[in-house]
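Dear support,

Our group has been running a series of protein-ligand predictions, and this particular one with phenylalanine is the one our PI (initials K.S.) wants archived with full inputs and outputs. We had some confusion internally about which version of the output was final, so please treat the block below as the authoritative record. The input we submitted was:
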Amino acid sequence: MSSKQNTPQRDFFSNKFGIIAATAGSAIGLGNIWRFPYIVGENGGAAFLIILLLIKFGIGLPVMLSEFTIGRHTQRNPFGAFRMLAPGKLWWIVGFMGIIAAFTIMAFYSVVAGWTLDYLYNSVLDGFNNKSADDIQSMFDSFVANGWQPIIWMFLFVSISSLIVVAGIKKGIEKYTKVLMPALLVIIVILCVRALSLPGAEKGLEFFFKPDFSKITGASVLEALGQSFFSLSIGMGVLLTYGSYVQKSDNIGSTTFIVAFADTAIAILAGMVIFPAVFAFGISPGSGPGLVFVTLPNIFEQMPAGYIFSVLFFVLLSVAAITSFISIQEVVVAYLSEELNIKRKTATFLAAGGAVFLGALCALSQSGHLNIMFGDMNLFDLLDFASSNLMLPLGGLLIVIFVAWFMGKERLLRELRSNGLYKASYFPIYNFIIRFIAPIAITAVFLSKLGLI
Ligand code: PHE
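Confirmed final output from the archive:
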């Protein structure tokens, strides 16, 4: 196999904990703490949460395993992987779509990550101290409306991420996530305790956990699909790329499940912090992308040692954002360096440049300086919507179809079982889902969005 000889020496994760930490590092990020609460808030709460969980485990998890399997099997970037498994066919297009999705997500993600850095800076300066809920709201509004400041923070964020990506997998990505992800969990649990003891917290819990299915519309099912995929980092090649750094002896079935579980646990805990506080401080749950940023400082304001907790929290949220962002950037970098033989450093720089350019446009669309609207969405909203709700589910659909119908059952089973090391007793259910349920369900959600069914 001549292409094998051309493959550059690849880095691997050192052990199972390293794999889980890095994959969870990708999955857990702004998607859980920023996007999840605002999407649940906009879609009416508990009933939406139930649909989201059903979709996440019923469809998202199998897509995630499929993507991981292709990566581990081929040990290639998404392009190379499809070209190796389906030579001469058009499947490499899935890899190409992943690159487009990567730039789309990097653009708005880096903007929100920039907000996070600004909030970290403000926390360090104790800038939220003695502020009322209204003050905190107007601080957010005026920060976003300021054209340059968010762009500078975004630039800083992308630069930090790029330094880590240049360092490579084991030395860069894995080292940081191993320690910092568990720390994030601890601090969210502490915040949860404070939020649940706020006066009026029950209303938030009711909103989050007591379903009212009359609030569900066809559009919210698409939102649930998009949020599940976004949160699990699937549908665009991130997991495929990470899977390619996983050793052959790892049980990818259990790794996938642990990561999906951890990702969901963090999101639910984040909801249990945000919604009680939203109701306690009279904030609207449907406030949109600013929700977390106008809610959290209120909690810090009202808790003992709030200063320390706010600094710690925004440090960890920034880190969670970085460990997700690097996974997106890595997709572009792996492609440029392995397929186009561009040096890793240059590739990282190119990916960062594209992200900063598009991110600046997004930030300016949020501030009102760039006034192009797509229906009721500005550029930021459009990229957020289009990547999560359209590109990722479409990518996921093609990935499961490929694995279920084109990869070959024997080959698939061998990979899931690590050549006989594990049983993969979940295989019959998994196989049924990827063959029928997932493709039909994703297509149906698309068709219903288009008003065709
Ligand atoms: N899952 C990440 C988060 O929750 C975002 C992400 C999406 C990362 C798609 C990679 C790919 O923040």
